[in-house]
């Protein structure tokens, strides 16, 4: 009987501080992976705030306070070995190439001291940037293959951050032994660019929650996400909601869950459009609180023009909430196929969002049927069992040449 594989994981996404990194899906994903292999997880956090956190007075100090205080997680309760490392580096946008080099210089000697006695079969980097370069260097030193989970996507760096950002990310993906994609659309993009490389599809999982339809009024629209990033067009959603409300003067509300540097700008936009009393900015929510808001809403709108996966869309679908959005955006298109053409935006404009909301407001039976369809799709394709099976197949293929273990 071959031993279980021993996998080293590097991540900058582990929810060390719940207020700033609310990512329970990461904990669950690593837990599922620990059922297949022995895990040693290295979590990295840059203690300097991102430039966007300096825009508002006090947010930079809040970030530093969170980054420097002790972790809020009970590592002993986790089913894998966990180590947490802080690094000092500049914000990425000051120099896309410099930050990963600085992280590598600080971490590589420290990590090699703790890992050189261990025998690992594979290194998984949960994130391409900025820990991807460090993961490449570490995998080379340990002489093990590297698989990169590409959370952020690839094209977005070239489209929105410029050539230096694209070069930094392309270098990591080009030199990794394998890439893990999160959605079919995401995999297709990566295969198109890195076709000679092994690209594996491993979508995240979720628990499906029983849903009962909320009262017809007020008609509630909800969206969730970081209020930052050029790809997340919350401004278009707000304008579309305002147009929807103007046409009918119905009893409607818009919930926006999340936080980010665009918050004050978006609040100002609601005042300018005269809908500030009907738009509620909820901030970051605990899982239970988010569940309550999703359960009391009628439809979820994803106004992003680019997503690699979009876990918030999966959260909504798992609760039987139909999705409005563009096709070919993360997993949105899969739920659009289940829900029907009324939910598909042909282009991202305020008018198209208003048109979809207008149709659905007058068709509660369509909303109910679509909600049941997307929930069934979430149960079938995005359970944690499906996630674990995809992980198992990917590991089997990645480590086949090493012949060190029998896949679970």
Explain what you see.
This protein has 15 helices and twelve strands. The strands form two sheets. The protein has a seven-stranded parallel sheet with strand order 3-2-1-4-5-6-7, sandwiched between helices. A five-stranded parallel sheet has the order 10-9-8-11-12, with helices on both faces. The radius of gyration is 22 Å and the shape is globular. Helix 3 packs parallel to helix 4, helix 8 (234-248) crosses helix 13 (350-361) and helix 12 crosses helix 14. Strand 4, helix 4 (132-142) and strand 5 (146-149) form a beta-alpha-beta unit. The relative contact order is 0.12. The longest helix is centred in the first third of the chain and has 18 residues, at 98-115. The protein is α/β, with parallel strands linked by helices. Helices cover 43% and strands 15% of the residues.
What percentage of the residues does DSSP assign to strands (E)?
5-15%
Biggest sheet layout: 7 strands, parallel
Averaged pLDDT: 86
* Number of contiguous helices: 15
Q: What share of residues is helical?
A: 40-55%
Oligomer: single chain
- Radius of gyration equals 22 Å
Give the terminus-to-terminus CA distance.
Answer: 12 Å
Strand order of the largest sheet: 3-2-1-4-5-6-7
- Low-pLDDT residue spans: 404-408
Topology, pairings included?
Elements: E1 6-11, H1 24-34, E2 38-46, H2 59-68, E3 81-87, H3 98-115, E4 122-126, H4 132-142, E5 146-149, H5 155-161, H6 163-175, E6 178-181, H7 184-193, E7 198-201, E8 219-224, H8 234-248, E9 252-257, H9 263-272, E10 279-283, H10 287-295, E11 299-301, H11 311-318, E12 323-324, H12 332-339, H13 350-361, H14 364-381, H15 384-398
